[in-house]
């Protein structure tokens, strides 16, 4: 059987099978396996028309436009992805554990940052500042009642209690989404097919790699509790500042101090859970959560309710002026993130030096810390953009000509906004340099393009040749991505550090810091702050718009989807609020299908994966036991296994890991093109035949001829299955698979095998065993 797995862009079963009569044989609406209606009965292999099945998983990562809101969780996804970007240093368990702890603490700080941003919008800008300024409160009937003189809501504590509802709902929404998506996407049970090495030959072969229910549950409880504690801290700070003053309320002060002490203890419990919440990949993590973990969010919610009650009593002379007293939280969280990232970088460098030279990855081992830094910076930009735009809406009188009636969002946001235009300029210069280099490389590759078509050397077409050379040059931009990413991260680090330093030293906005200086400098600072503020707000809108377009437009999905699908391929190991991991459903699906079909029929499978589908196929093969794996061949095309995953995730897809896959799976062939910007060679060397076939011609014909009277299209990343080389390599894999198993080439069936006799019961190979029971005949969902 040929099992087809599509890539990022998605495909219908009819397109994959080349037959309009596709029938679902197993699965559901989210992910399923289909066959052609006239091919439901298993039969001997036919090279011209083999038995084919199509596994469709695009509904795991696409759907209605509402899923575009998942892009607002992009900072969480990036930090979670940084967990998997460590160097491949064998051993060094203490360093790996330290890396895990640091990345989980960084993810926790990002949750606190997001919830604090929501508190800035509702509790600081609206309830604390705007409600105390009649010019601001009178702008809308929605919250005018907050500023009525002598009204019940005129007391700042009561306004803060009411405004805390929105951040609390946000935390509840994140908790609900994390719990719901786990049930819908990541709760697929992997089959129990034990490897002789226990999966230690490759990390993705570990039995519990694709079932991390325990760590997600523990982290979800801790992050939910941290979000609630953040709200309680903002709420309690306003009251305690008043109670600690000479004119405070003495009888309420002890209660506030007790609540603060309880919050400190609960915060320590949160940190302890995050520090100890490591993944258990040696076996599936099915242990029930400890009671104190499940009770922690409830305890924090009770504490928040007590803080609400503590804020309600009237405190004489209590008025809200200036920024909220808890506005120091943003600089504090930023400083903590900086310290964590520095420690993470130090651990990553240590692992990088201990790793084999071939498995060190990009950016000198700093790929993970750089991604974590990018996630934190993006989280700051998103929260700052929303706060800045909300402040401008509340206080339109605040212009470049002078201050408005509000103090505004935290000073750090203003400094971050002022540095954003400089970062945009760096990005523009970087894009210009890349464009020039790509153009020059395209001109240099002209002769190389003609070398692939020797029959056309006498009559080359200048426009056609230039077009093909430019396509190859653009495809090679993927190989330059680490350098561009590193440049962008360094610029972000320097500008972010400058913004934090400026906010910490001056305590005022950039425009106010240079006030009284030369007019040009003052005007430039005010202009940068305004442009950056608008850019941050527009960035949020653009992000959501891009997400909606990517989920509705297939072309945009192919463009944006590869980066999104790389991030959501990995399980949620650092941040429980990251978008769901589709591979925790897709990989068990493929493993179950291959294992049960081999057990039922004794037949052989060529699993064919395109683009991201090749990564899913490789991960599924790693999970198979040796008896099943000996009857499986892998055909990858347009595969990012080495080009993207091997360079950015060296521990899991580096040269050593791919070599172990080759050792496990003797029948593997990879197809690629020089014009493909995503796929490439897997570079597993030293075997005969090699895994990589030479680059396929693209286009297959340079100009018009008897076979191609019309210009052949430039295929790039698509339509590998239409190339004659695909059918040739598929036939060779089948012949090699049958030959290695000692089977009859005429039927493709082992002499001792009979339909319905599980191959795994005929003896283990290399000491592997399987504990999958014999499936009863005719069981629903087993397929034909």
TrEMBL record:
Region (Disordered): 742-784
Organism domain of life: Bacteria
SUPFAM superfamilies, per database record: alpha/beta-Hydrolases
Keyword tags: Membrane, Transmembrane, Transmembrane helix
Nucleotide-binding found in the keyword field: no
Composition bias type Low complexity, residue spans: 742-758
Transmembrane parts of this sequence: 68-89, 101-123, 160-177, 221-241, 253-275, 295-314, 326-349, 370-391, 411-436, 484-505, 525-547
UniProt xrefs under InterPro entries: AB_hydrolase_fold
The protein's name: Integral membrane protein
Organism expressing this protein natively: Streptomyces calidiresistens
């Amino acid at each position: 059987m040929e099992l087809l797995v599509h890539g990022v862009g998605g495909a219908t079963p009819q397109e994959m099978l080349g037959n309009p009569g596709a029938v679902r044989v197993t699965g559901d609406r989210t992910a399923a396996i289909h066959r052609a209606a006239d091919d439901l009965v298993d039969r001997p292999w036919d090279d011209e028309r083999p038995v084919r099945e199509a596994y469709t998983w695009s509904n795991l990562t696409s759907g209605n436009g509402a899923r575009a809101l998942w892009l607002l969780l992009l900072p969480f996804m990036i930090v979670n992805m940084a967990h998997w970007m460590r160097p491949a240093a064998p051993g060094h368990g203490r360093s790996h554990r330290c890396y895990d702890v640091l990345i989980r603490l960084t993810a926790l700080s990002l949750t606190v940052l997001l919830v604090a941003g929501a508190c800035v919008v509702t509790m600081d800008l609206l309830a604390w500042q705007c409600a105390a300024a009649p010019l601001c409160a009178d702008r809308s009937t929605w919250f005018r009642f907050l500023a009525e003189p002598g009204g019940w809501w005129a007391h700042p504590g009561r306004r803060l209690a009411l405004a805390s509802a929105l951040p609390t709902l946000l935390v509840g929404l994140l908790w609900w989404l994390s719990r719901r998506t786990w049930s819908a996407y990541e709760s697929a049970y992997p089959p129990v097919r034990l490897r002789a090495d226990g999966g230690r030959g490759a990390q993705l072969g570990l039995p519990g790699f694709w079932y991390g229910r325990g760590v997600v549950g523990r982290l979800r409880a801790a992050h939910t509790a941290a979000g609630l504690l953040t709200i309680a801290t903002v709420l309690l700070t306003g009251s305690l500042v008043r109670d600690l003053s000479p004119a405070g309320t003495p009888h309420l002060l002890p209660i506030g101090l007790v609540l603060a002490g309880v919050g400190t203890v609960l915060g320590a419990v949160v940190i302890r859970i995050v520090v100890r919440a490591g993944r258990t990949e040696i076996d599936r993590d099915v242990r029930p959560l400890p009671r104190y973990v499940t009770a922690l969010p409830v305890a924090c919610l009770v504490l928040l309710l007590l803080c609400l009650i503590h804020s309600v009593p009237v405190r004489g002379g209590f008025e809200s002026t200036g920024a909220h007293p808890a506005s120091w939280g943003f600089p504090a969280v930023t400083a903590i993130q900086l310290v964590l990232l520095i420690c993470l970088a130090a651990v990553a460098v240590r692992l990088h030096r201990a790793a084999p030279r071939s498995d060190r990855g990009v950016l000198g081992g700093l790929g993970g810390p750089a991604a974590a830094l990018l996630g934190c910076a993006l989280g700051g930009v998103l929260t700052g953009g929303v706060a800045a735009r909300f402040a401008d809406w509340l206080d339109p009188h605040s212009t470049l000509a002078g201050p408005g009636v509000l103090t505004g969002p935290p000073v750090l946001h203003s400094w971050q906004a002022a540095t954003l235009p400089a970062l945009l300029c760096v990005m523009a210069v970087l894009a210009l340099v890349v464009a020039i280099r790509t153009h020059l490389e395209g001109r240099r590759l002209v002769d190389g393009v003609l070398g692939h078509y020797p029959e056309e050397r006498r009559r080359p077409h200048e426009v056609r040749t230039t077009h093909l050379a430019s396509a190859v040059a653009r495809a090679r931009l993927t190989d330059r991505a680490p350098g561009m990413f590193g440049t962008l991260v360094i610029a972000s680090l320097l500008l972010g550090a400058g913004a934090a330093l400026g906010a910490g030293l001056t305590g005022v906005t950039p425009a106010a810091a240079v006030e009284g200086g030369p007019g040009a400098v003052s005007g430039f600072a005010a202009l940068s702050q305004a442009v950056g503020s608008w850019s941050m707000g527009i960035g949020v809108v653009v992000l959501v718009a891009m997400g909606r377009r990517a989920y509705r437009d297939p072309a945009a999905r192919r463009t944006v989807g590869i980066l999104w699908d790389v991030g959501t391929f990995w399980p949620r190991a650092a941040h429980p609020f990251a978008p769901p991991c589709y591979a925790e459903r897709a990989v068990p699906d493929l493993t179950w299908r291959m294992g049960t079909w081999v057990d039922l029929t004794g037949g052989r499978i060529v699993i064919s994966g395109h683009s991201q589908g090749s990564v899913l196929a490789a991960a599924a093969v790693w999970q198979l036991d040796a008896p099943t794996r000996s009857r499986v061949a892998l055909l990858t095309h347009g595969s990012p296994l080495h080009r993207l995953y091997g360079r950015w995730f060296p521990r899991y897809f580096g040269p050593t890991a791919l070599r172990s896959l080759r050792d496990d799976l003797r029948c593997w062939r990879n197809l690629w093109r020089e014009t493909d910007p995503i796929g490439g060679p897997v570079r597993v060397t030293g075997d005969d035949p090699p895994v990589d076939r030479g680059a396929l011609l693209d286009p297959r014909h340079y100009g018009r001829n008897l076979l191609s009277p019309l210009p052949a299209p430039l295929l790039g990343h698509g339509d590998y299955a239409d190339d004659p080389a695909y059918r040739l390599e598929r036939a060779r894999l089948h012949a090699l698979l049958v030959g290695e198993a000692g089977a009859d080439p005429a039927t493709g069936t082992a002499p001792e095998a009979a339909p319905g006799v599980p191959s795994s019961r005929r003896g283990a190979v290399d000491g592997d065993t399987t504990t999958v029971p014999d499936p009863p005949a005719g069981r629903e969902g087993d397929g034909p």
